[in-house]
Amino acid sequence: MVHIIGGGLAGCEAAWQAASMGVDVALHEMRPVRPTAVHQTDHLAELVCSNSFRGDKLDNAVGLLKEEMRRLDSVIIRIADEVRVPAGAALAVDRHLFSERVTAAITAHPRIRVDRSEVTCLPPPAEMSPLIVATGPLTSDALSAEIAAFVGRKHLAFYDAISPIVLAETIDRSKVFRASRWNRSLRPEDRKSASGGAPSDSQAPGPAHLQSADAADGDYLNCPFTKDEYLAFHQAILGAEKATVHDFDNTKFFEGCLPIEVMAHRGTDTLRFGPMKPAGLDDPRTGRWPYAVVQMRQDTLAGDHYSLVGFQTQLKWPEQRRVFTMIPGLEQAEFVRLGMIHRNTYINGPTVLTDTWQTRSRSDMFFAGQVSGVEGYVESAASGLVAGRNAARLSLGKTPLAPPRTTAIGALGHYVSHADPAHYAPTNITFGILPALDSPPRSRHDRNLAISARALEDLEPWRKA
Ligand SMILES: Cc1cc2nc3c(=O)[nH]c(=O)nc-3n(C[C@H](O)[C@H](O)[C@H](O)COP(=O)(O)OP(=O)(O)OC[C@H]3O[C@@H](n4cnc5c(N)ncnc54)[C@H](O)[C@@H]3O)c2cc1C
Question: ∠409-128-112 over CA atoms, to 5°?
Answer without folding.
Answer: 65
